[in-house]
Every structure is written in structure tokens, then in C-alpha cells.
Amino acid sequence: MSASLNQRLQAIDALRGLVILIMMVDHVRETFYLHHQVPDPMLIAETEEPLFMSRILAHLCAPVFVILTGLSAYLYQAKHNSIRMTREFLIKRGLFLIFLELIIINFAWTGKFPPDVIYLQVIWAIGISMLALAVLIGLPQKLLWCISLMIIFGHNLLDQISFENIPVLHNLWLILHERGWIELGNSVRLRTSYPVLPWIGVITLGYCISHLVFVPSNDAAKRNRILLGFGLTGIALFFIFRIINLYGDQAWQVMPSFTQTLMSFMNLTKYPPSLLFILWNAGMGLILLVLLQKVETQKWVKPLIVFGSVPMFFYIVHLYLLKALYLIAVQFFGTTHGPYFGVDQVSSLWLISILLSILLYPLMLKFSKFKHQNKHIRILKYL
């Protein structure tokens, strides 16, 4: 792989690191702010502005993770010059992520083993999307573009479809497109928090875009222009569809104040991700990738690159750390908000997140160096 593409990998890691840290703020919210739970989409009149803005910022995370996964799949294919090897890698990593979600990550959230509830969340969705991409990558590029865009732009047409009277199809539909509960006998329930169909469209989009961006004849400036073009197109389409207010998400409303109206305008559906959710967040992600490429050699970007180079290790460690901190807080302070221990201000969530970032950085740096020095240990490339 050329030196310029290796430089691009630095920006990819930096972007992944940035959204990982933003994600941690949201997970701190889900740990220490449970007394102010927010539905999807949020209720504007009942949601304080700092909480709304923190949640909207966190919306960036999943689309960036997924589109970067598609982009990285193409870079893996370009490096090894083999669709077969890429397909094998996607299958192995996809199955590994599903295993982590079902066993390791679910326990971090629930603290129960064996579990009575299994949450199928973002890592599950990425794993399933990787398996789907493994099936799709051998298809002609034009067909891949059609599949990706049809899913992204068309899946909201499926919102009114239901198979409640056909159990087998209903359970499949809950996995693909509708958030809900799947009963496994009388002992275990599955919560399909991240229906996977739209994410398959997003990962395929990242893979398709990479074919246009990372052509050997493209220099860094041309790659940036293409990425920026896609990002700005996503943002422009978001505003067009949102202003029309007829398709792509729930309609926004004029509220009593300008701030609330703006909140209504940006109040997007994540479960499953609406067309407008994908356009805004994937578009912003591609723009951030271009901006980070321009500053990736600056010292302040290094911590982002370190965090982004060990994404799964960080994901697991920070979840278990948050679980431990919550149990310690309950032990020392008891429950402070009904059945929960929690903080009183959204600013406290950010403060906790900053402190945890500083605390975890040395461990992530050490593991990143270990991972780089031990590439022969296969499992490390999945972390």
C-alpha cells in the first residue's frame, strides 16, 4: 500500500478515536443519568437543551463506525488484492463481534449471567453488516451502489410493514427493520435495539465510496475532494428532505421558541436510523475525515489516533469500568434519584468522560503499541 494511503489510515484512526470518545459521553449518560432517560426520537418539550445536544452529538458515532468499516474493508482488499481474503476477514470479524455483543458486552450492561435479556446493539449491527458485506463484495460496483442507495433511501417506505401475525417473519423483521422484543422460550428475551437493514446500506456505501477515493492515481487532494463532495452532498440532501418535511423521518414542527424549533428540526430517529439520520451523520463523518487528514500530524491528534487504533479494546474496557464505577457509587452514596444513583447536571457527564479519557489513555497507548509489535497474534487485529 502506498505511503499516502498509510497516511489516510492515520486520519481514519483519528476519526474513529474522536467518535469513540463522544460515544463514551453517551455511555456515561446511560450510566449516571438514567433518571433522565430519553426516547427515540426525543420529546422536545421534556428534554433540556444540554442533554439534547449531547445526544445529537452522540448520533454521529454509529454511522461513522459503520461507514469506516466499509471503507476499511476496501483498504484491506486493496492491500491484499484479494476479494476472497477480504470476505474471509469480514466473516471472521463479523462473527467475532457478534460473539462479543452476545456474551462479553451484554454482561457489561446487565451484570447477569446467564442473562434474561440480551441487547442486540451497535456491535451486533456492525457484525451482521460485515457478514452481509462479505456476501455482497463480489457483485459489480454499479449493482453495489444500487443496493446501498436503495436501502438508505428506501427503507423508510417499510416503516408501516408488520408481520405480527406471522411469528417467524415477525422475528426476522425485528432483526432487520423494527425495534422490538424476540422471545426465546420463557427464560431469555432479545431486544433488537439496532435493526440491521439500514446499517447494511451504510457499510456498503462506505465500501463503494472507497472504490472512487482510494484509486492509486488519486493524490491526497483529489481523495479529499471526493470525500468532501460526498459529505457535502449528504448534508445538502438532508436539508432538502428536511425542509420538504414529507419523507425520511418524523415531521419537524414550529415550536414556541426558536431553540425548540431548531431542536425539532434536528430531532432524528436512530432506531432504526432514518434516511435523514444517515444523510446528516454520514455526511458529517466524511467531512470530519477530510478535516482530520489535514491535521493528522499535529501532536493534539495523536491521542485520537491511539484511541482509534484499539476501538474494540477501548469499547469493552470502558463499559466494564463504567459498570464498576456505578456499583462503587451506589455502595458509597446509595441511590440519589429514585432507584438510580446519578448526577444532577449534563456538564457532570462531560467532566466524568474527560477524566475517564485521561485515565484510560495510558492503557490504550500501551495496548496499541503491543498490538503493533505483535501483528502475528491474529486476534489482536480484531481489537
Automatic annotation (TrEMBL):
Pfam families according to UniProt: HGSNAT_cat
The UniProt record lists the keyword Transmembrane: yes
The species this protein was found in: Acinetobacter nematophilus
Protein name: Heparan-alpha-glucosaminide N-acetyltransferase domain-containing protein
Lineage of producing organism: Bacteria, Pseudomonadati, Pseudomonadota, Gammaproteobacteria, Moraxellales
Ranges where the Heparan-alpha-glucosaminide N-acetyltransferase catalytic domain occurs: 8-216
Transmembrane segments: 56-78, 90-111, 117-136, 143-163, 196-214, 226-248, 271-292, 304-329, 349-368
InterPro entries: HGSNAT_cat
Keywords: Membrane, Transmembrane, Transmembrane helix
